[in-house]
């Protein structure tokens, strides 16, 4: 029996955040998505963690759409890791959740670390999924060059328009990291689309992505929060990169391993660590009870 799923809206400054909730009961888990994602990036993980009310699973799983993304796409700024962390705390307060496991993927890992720093009583343990620790500085002479070097097609798609839902699906199916298509990816892609044919577009606010990218590269809160991190944490590393290239986002995990356990998940890239069965199962195991073997 699958866990129940529903959506609610939580008020924050600038509007209402869309929050997906899987399961029932205690404990609660918070899932934080990446820079151009939504809470549905976590669906395969959430379904493996959430309780169904009949003794299966482990409680309630909360996944918010960060401001400027998904159902929260129209929520205005300011953006940045500190603002997202405060939004996460507001969501947890609204739902009466404290002392939760927080899992963050990609940029969501940085949000999770800042959340633990700014609201330590809300967080019990961190699961950082291919994001959160300081990453190598990307090539480029300017911040804009460095952002393009890392995000590339993810940023370009925000300016694109698509004549139909099928055209948007086909765009994603051509992504080198998503060769093994599944229902979870399809739902994630469908949810990201807004507008009317023949001018459909991503729900992601390009200004939010630009501001958050700059904060990750030059802002003080992510680095300071990492330096002060005292919560129990584990780092789950994708074996391959954003475009399924053999060099991962974190080529050398040695400095991270000095702070927390590191597990490289074989056969995963930056996307399939959440959006494929094997990666999602390993991440869910870490969320439930600690790092996978």
TrEMBL record:
Pfam families: Abhydrolase_1. This is AB hydrolase-1 domain-containing protein. It comes from the Bacteria. Keywords: Hydrolase. It comes from Fodinicola feengrottensis. Residues 30-149 form the AB hydrolase-1 domain. PANTHER family: AB HYDROLASE SUPERFAMILY PROTEIN YCLE, MONOACYLGLYCEROL LIPASE.
């Amino acid at each position: 029996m699958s866990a129940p799923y529903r959506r609610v809206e939580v008020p924050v400054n600038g509007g209402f955040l869309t929050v997906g909730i899987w399961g029932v009961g205690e404990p609660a888990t918070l899932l934080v998505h990446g820079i151009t994602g939504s809470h549905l990036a976590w669906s395969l993980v959430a379904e493996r963690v959430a309780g169904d009310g009949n003794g299966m699973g482990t409680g309630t799983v909360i996944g918010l759409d960060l401001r400027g993304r998904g159902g929260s796409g129209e929520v205005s700024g300011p953006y940045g890791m500190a603002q997202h962390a405060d939004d996460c705390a507001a969501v947890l307060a609204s739902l009466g959740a404290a002392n939760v496991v927080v899992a963050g993927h990609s940029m969501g890992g940085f949000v999770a670390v800042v959340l633990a720093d700014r609201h330590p009583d809300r967080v019990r343990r961190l699961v950082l999924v291919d994001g959160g620790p300081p990453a190598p500085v990307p090539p480029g002479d300017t911040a804009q060059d460095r952002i393009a070097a890392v995000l590339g097609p993810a940023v370009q798609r925000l300016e694109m328009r698509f004549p139909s839902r099928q055209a948007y699906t086909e765009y994603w199916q051509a992504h080198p990291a998503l060769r093994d298509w599944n229902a979870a990816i399809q739902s994630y892609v469908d949810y990201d689309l807004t507008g009317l044919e023949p001018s459909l577009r991503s729900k992601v606010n390009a200004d939010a992505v630009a501001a958050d990218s700059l904060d990750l590269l030059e802002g003080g809160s992510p680095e300071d929060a990492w330096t002060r991190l005292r919560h129990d944490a584990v780092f789950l590393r994708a074996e391959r990169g954003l475009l399924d290239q053999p060099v991962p986002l974190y080529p050398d995990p040695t400095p991270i391993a000095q702070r927390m356990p590191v597990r490289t998940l074989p056969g995963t890239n930056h996307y399939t660590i959440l959006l494929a069965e094997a990666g999602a199962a390993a991440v869910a195991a870490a969320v439930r009870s600690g790092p996978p073997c």
